[in-house]
Design a protein that fits this description.
It is a single chain. By secondary structure, this protein is mostly helical. The chain is 80% helix and 0% strand. It contains 16 helices and no strands. The model is unreliable at 1-17 and 209-216 (pLDDT under 50).
């Protein structure tokens, strides 16, 4: 009987993998994404020595990180289109190849311009992976398990940023700049090979339609539907969350150190929500799978992130840790729930690549707005913490209202 079911699934194009295969796939995808993020976050903790070594000014050195945001704003939509034409698997592996290439150029860079150019190449790879991974989950994981898979995948930036920021100083001291760049490139290559080997045994969860396979193109009217009020409300909510979470990650350590906390403890406080998300993110995904609902959970997570942000940007005592717990255990449900709800907002498989491209564009735009607006709100002396936190929180409250008005399950 089981053999007959497997044969029917194979004929219909459904995945015939074991139930646990999506978990292994999600973990390998997470490992690959984590190595990519380690490459992104290798710079901040050694920015000073890099600037000194290459004779960079502070404005020039800032491009070593901000170039990632700039690439995302300009290439996200194109990356979605590329994923539709080539397939998410090929784009994932292409992204890994591009980042290894960029790292090799960086390792050999003899000038600040060459180093920034290498970071630009790495940023292109980051965009490709960011767009292709959710499409791979949508293609290879059954709808009943996509929440859990997204919950695992959503950890890639949390883990990669923590590992990249904490491990790089020691690696840099031991291996130097070139050794660090090449080691991280090797980690990406190993993760990419492991994922590629595993995915050789995977099949799409359903046979693609002629439209999805590229036989037909979605109509212009269908693409314009992604600019309708429902997607706009959904994307606005995610935009303000990115402004909010980047403000916490970027500026909480500065606030805490101004308040007298030592650097190591302030760094731990800012990274604690990401560490807690290792447990909460897959849990939110599993609950979404079991209930078939994302909107109620999304609203709770986004609403919880508001007081969490305010506390983490204004408190250095016990309330700081309350905010960190609230953000890590509840607020960090936002990325996984937004990814899980994305197919509903797109409305069809054919529009998913474009929808994911818009999603990545909004993420990059949120990071850009955070880097531009928060310093203004803090003032020249970087002392207006309560005012800044209040404005960011009020903006996030508008995101909750927008999400409440958006129709999805």
């Amino acid at each position: 009987m089981d053999g007959e079911k497997m044969e029917k699934k194979a004929k219909s194009g459904e995945s015939v993998s074991h139930p646990e295969r999506y978990l292994a796939f999600s973990i390998l995808l997470l490992a690959m994404g984590t190595t990519i993020t380690i490459v992104q976050y290798k710079v901040p903790s050694i920015l000073g020595p890099l600037m000194k070594s290459y004779g960079m000014s502070s404005s020039t050195g800032s491009w070593l990180m901000s170039v990632f945001t700039a690439v995302g704003i300009f290439l996200s939509i194109s990356a979605g289109s590329l994923a539709k034409k080539m397939g998410p698997k090929r784009v994932l592996l292409l992204g890994c190849g591009v980042i290894v290439f960029g790292s090799a150029i960086g390792a050999a860079a003899g000038s600040s311009l060459a180093l920034i150019a290498s970071r630009l190449i790495e940023g292109i790879a980051f965009v490709l992976v960011t767009v292709a991974a959710p499409l791979a989950i949508e293609k290879y994981v059954s709808p009943d398990n996509q929440g859990t898979a997204n919950g695992i995948w959503a950890l890639w930036i949390c883990l990669g940023s923590v590992i990249g920021s904490t491990a790089t100083p020691a690696v840099f001291e031991a291996l130097g700049m070139r050794g660090t760049w090449l080691l991280y490139a090797a980690l990406v290559a190993i993760a990419a090979v492991a994922l590629a080997v595993f995915m050789r045994k995977m099949r799409p969860v359903a046979a693609p339609t002629s439209e999805e396979a590229g036989g037909e193109k979605a109509s212009l009217r269908a693409y314009l539907s992604l600019l309708a009020p429902r997607p706009a409300l959904f994307l606005f909510a995610y935009l303000v969350f990115n402004i909010e979470i980047l403000a916490v990650l970027s500026y909480t350590p500065t606030f805490l150190q101004q308040s007298g906390m030592d650097a190591s403890l302030s760094g731990f406080a800012s990274s604690l929500p990401g560490l807690l998300a290792i447990a909460s993110s897959p849990l939110f995904g599993k609950i979404a799978d079991r209930t078939g609902k994302t909107k109620p959970l999304y609203l709770v997570a986004l609403a919880a992130s508001i007081p969490a942000t305010f506390l983490m940007m204004t408190q250095s005592g016990p309330l700081l840790w309350v905010g960190a717990l609230l953000m890590g255990l509840v607020g960090y449900g936002v990325p996984v729930l937004s990814l899980t709800a994305l197919p509903q907002i797109a409305g069809s498989k054919a529009l998913m690549p474009a929808m994911v491209g818009l999603f990545m564009l909004v993420q990059s735009l949120g990071e850009f707005l955070e880097s531009f607006l928060v310093p203004i709100l803090l003032g020249p002396a970087m002392a207006e913490w309560t005012f800044c936190a209040a404005v960011v929180s009020a903006t996030s409250a508008l995101g909750v209202v927008a999400l409440a008005l958006c129709r999805f399950k």
